[in-house]
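Researcher: I'd like a structural prediction for the single chain below. Treat it as a standalone chain; there are no partners to consider.
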Amino acid sequence: MNILFMTAHPLLPQMVGGLQRSSAQLAEGLMARGHQVFFLGALMPDGWIGKRDRLLLKLTRKPAVKDHAGGLPTYRGWHPWDAVGHVCRKERIDLCVVLAMQPVKMAQQAQRHDIPVVMMLQDVEYHQHGGDFARLGPVPCVANSRFTADRFRKDFALDPIVIYPMVDGAKYRTETTRENVTFINPHPKKGLDLALDLARNCPDIPFAFVEGWPLTPEDKASLMERLAPLPNVTLHPTAQDMRDVYGKAKLVLAPSQWEEAFGRIGLEPQFSGIPVIATRIGGFPESVGEGGVLLDRTADSGEWTAALRRLWDDDAFYEEKKAAALAHCAQPCFAISHQLDQWERVITQAAQGSLQAEKVNG
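Model: Treating it as a single chain, here is the predicted structure.
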């Protein structure tokens, strides 16, 4: 089957985030099972990919151009929704899997070309749907957590299938020197202010801040200014191989202030037995589970500091959470073979037009 994963977000390697990593892992798994997978996303103008594809867009006058810069065949364009028909025709697409960011706008284009769609529900940011989700009709949906499924069930009367994001433990599992507290993606929505408070409150603990979402020059300058008085914090560039990051982490900090639909960062470190301190919000209770510590969104920096210090200083408690982390990520619901079996059933039935009928009649 020829499958198109599409989003209005930039894709690997121009943007490195949970959506990009999870969809790439799924695509690799489906390709290993004999499917052909393509991606369609937004082009960022910077870097060599941006310069190359900008030139090709201008020369070819096509709505999107193809490259393999992220290791997978990927089409990029300024307005990816305008390129859906072009890509579907060129690659003879049988099914579109619609990712987050402008999903309604993207899915409607596929529907106009009579291509079956599966909506991959990855957030609850309805204002970024690019239209009224209800107007898509009874489309099959896969949610990345029970939290996401419950929200769409309540707001749109849908009944999504829950398949957790794919995290290949082999790509994250590593020995760690346990020398720092790691904070991924220093962005206000991800809890930057709280992370800075913790670094100030614990000057004896080394912190590693690792870039995630692209920062504008202004945002980068502001961040560097805020980090300047904190000698125990080092800022690292985006990592393509997260083992380079987790190889030094004793614990991972995820004080997110927005509703993480799943919170992939809550699961990745656990393959190395690294506990996570996260906000009890969105899907974090599912991704973190017992493999860390969850704090209420209303918890102040004193409560966060106490939780961090206990994991950092109390060896017995740390070993307890380390064991819980390893057990949590070993559950069958996170096993890639099981997840691929689920996805193959979904895409096969969706392409045949039987998935939604079965759900409605069942």
